[in-house]
Amino acid sequence: MTGIDRRNFLRNSAAAGGLILAPSLAGLISCNNDPASPGGGPSLRKAGRGDGGYGPLAPYAPLADLGIITLPAGFSAVALSRAGDMMTDGRPVPYAHDGMAAFLVPGDRFDEDLQGGQPDDDGGDDDDGEREGGRVVLVRNHEVRDVPPIAKPFGGNSYDRAGGGVTKLVVQVRRDGSATLLRHRAALSGTLTNCAGGETPEGSWLTCEETVAGPRDENGLDTGWRQNHGYVFEVPAADVRQAEPIPYKEMGRFDHEAVAVDPRTGYVYLTEDRTPSGFYRFRPRNRHQLQRGGKLDMLAIVGRREFDTSKNQPRGVRYRVRWVTIDQPDSDDPFLASGFVFNQGLAKGGAGFARLEGCWYGDRSVYFNSTSGGDVGAGQIWQYVPSQELLTLVYESPSFDVLNSPDNITVSPRGGILLCEDGAGINFLRGLTRDGRIFDFASNDQSEWAGACFSPQGNTLFVNVQGETRPGANPAGTKGFTLAIWGPWEEGAL
Questions:
Q1: In what order do the strands lie in the sheet with 449-454?
Q2: 341 sits in which H/E element
Q3: Mean pLDDT for the chain?
Q4: In the CATH hierarchy, which fold is given to the domain comprising 3-111+132-491?
Q5: What is the pLDDT of residues 431-445, one digit of tens each?
Q6: Which of 145, 191, 167, 232 lies closest to 451 in space, CA to CA?
Q7: How open is the CA angle 475-478-480, to the nearest 5 degrees?
Q8: What are the Cα distances from residue 124, in Å, to 180, 183, 193, 333?
Q9: Is 293 helix (H, G, I), strand (E, B) or coil?
């Protein structure tokens, strides 16, 4: 495939996946019509079966060996990949499954195995009429936090000796939404604490390190790391071989979480997982070649310097915003204190948030989660409209029972919103209808949900249960896994 053809194909794939033509997110804004006061207990209107939701949840017996996974009646699921399984390239699947995206790529793109050059064989006939055209490639983060000497990279061509990075899963999706894993291999290795990220219109995945660790600690002692961390790396979805581990230093060295790209401008919006944290904008010199660098800005509220958005925010409040330039987005210091970038923006009047995590582009807006924001600390969801330079608080959770620390966010091809919880105890996948009614779609008793994304065909939900993030230090910890879920989506909002 030529470079031009590949680029056009991947742009079309991104559009098919909902990046450019995202469904409406009006359901989030509708939440503001609820009259309940913050902290007063559950307030969202519930959506029952046939009314946007899918009905009560029940344990899904085929996944009983993974803990208690619940789903609505009529839905099925399969575990595509578990930590410790053997990948196609002969390496074990890393732990700590986190952010993820699904891409549509040519059916023959991954037919040659890196080791043996054998064609894919999933035990069936690709022309039996049961399969949809094109295979799905899942590009998945691993938030491994092990430190030296325990930390070990899981692939070749490693950036450092860290155990985090990215893997790719080639999946065949059938007409009913069921899925089969075909290929599985390392895609980026040696990075640290790869939490979330986001897809680009160029058909690539931006993976983000949620750390600023370096070769020295605060006392000047050797940490065992050889490289500085705290960067964004790019992984092309359609490339068979591992990506070159090139840090995009002008996107900043900070505790990165998620990104969303505005396809109209090419601007990359970035969240930061710390408290206080900033909301950032990267303006690339060349929107098609992010590696050429650009300028990093941080959001500020007009007329309110160093504004704290995390508390005492009226429902639906709107703020005019401006952007302040980060003069030094990167540092070569082997020890870097958390907040190096944020403090620069704050000194210029930037706004602070409480743990920014999930980020999504749709309706010509960027939606992002403040996981610990709000008067009760259960989470906020904000909307930024670039064309109006307007920031709106579209929802604040009044209770951990309603929405418990929202992390990753995604939108279904039918316009429903799916939120991944990252809280204590049992975590839920919470669905939200276009008119602001909430429902439980799934739960697990093992770990946080992460990486939710729908197949470009629209009939399969892929999602991770994260599991242990320090497997070397705690080998008995929960093994993360990736699920494919399918069923009667048309009966509800998703």
A1: 76-82, 481-486, 461-465, 449-454
A2: helix 340-347
A3: 86
A4: Neuraminidase (2.120.10)
A5: 888 776 789 999 999
A6: 167
A7: 110
A8: 10, 15, 38, 54
A9: coil
